[in-house]
Specification:
This protein is an alpha+beta fold. It has a single domain, classed as CheA-289, Domain 4 (OB fold (Dihydrolipoamide Acetyltransferase, E2P), Beta Barrel). The chain has four helices and eleven strands; from the N terminus they run ααβββββαββββββα. The strands form two sheets. It has a six-stranded mixed beta sheet, with no helix packed on it. Strands 3-6-7-5-4 form a five-stranded mixed beta sheet. A hairpin with a 2-residue loop joins β1 and β2. The chain starts with a helix and ends in a 6-residue tail after the last helix.
Length: 178
């Protein structure tokens, strides 16, 4: 391209693709993700909001024989039987007493066995946060205990470090495939 062609280039209208790409550069909304934050033991965890079906108050959980010890049992929610996972036990955290702040997070995840709907016991709900994807650090380099496979990343949000759980892996293990 000679000098004349380069100087004329600035007067050529952009293609539709270039125009839309330029428009997206100004709008960073697609880089923003939403997470539900909650506490289990003294640690703050997060799940992507897109996997959350609802949050309910803790209720009586029926014991089921011959299930893994990290499964608390089942509940009936509007006629649907839902298994409840005790996250304190699943993540090898210390046991805490039941309080009025305890909630059950009903979550959906696509696993090897298909779509799984499960309740997750949380000590308390913090709320929903909107985070730029640049503030999420992957944890592929974590070496350690068996629970590290349940961690998808760490969210940096207003001075807090929030552990992002990998829900499909949490539910997908042979023991949890109920």
């Amino acid at each position: 391209m000679n000098e004349t062609q380069r100087s004329l280039q600035r007067y050529i209208a952009p293609t539709d693709e270039e125009f839309y790409e330029g428009g997206r550069a100004d709008k960073k909304e697609e880089d923003v993700l939403q997470f539900l934050c909650f506490y289990v033991d003294d640690e703050e965890y997060a799940l992507e909001l897109s996997v959350i079906a609802e949050i309910i108050k803790l209720r009586d959980i029926t014991d089921v024989p011959h299930i893994p010890d990290f499964m608390a049992g089942i509940i009936s929610l509007r006629g649907e039987i839902i298994y409840i996972m005790n996250l304190q036990k699943r993540l090898s955290l210390k046991k805490r007493d039941i309080t009025p702040e305890n909630r059950i997070i009903i979550a959906l995840a696509e696993t090897k066995i298909g779509l799984v709907k499960m309740g997750l016991m949380a000590d308390r709900i913090v709320g929903v946060v909107r985070v730029n994807s640049k503030n999420i650090e992957p944890t592929t380099n974590i070496q350690g205990g068996t629970c590290s496979r349940f961690i998808k990343g760490v969210i940096h949000y207003k001075g807090r470090l929030i552990i992002m759980l990998n829900l499909p892996v949490l539910l997908e293990t042979e023991e949890a495939a109920v």
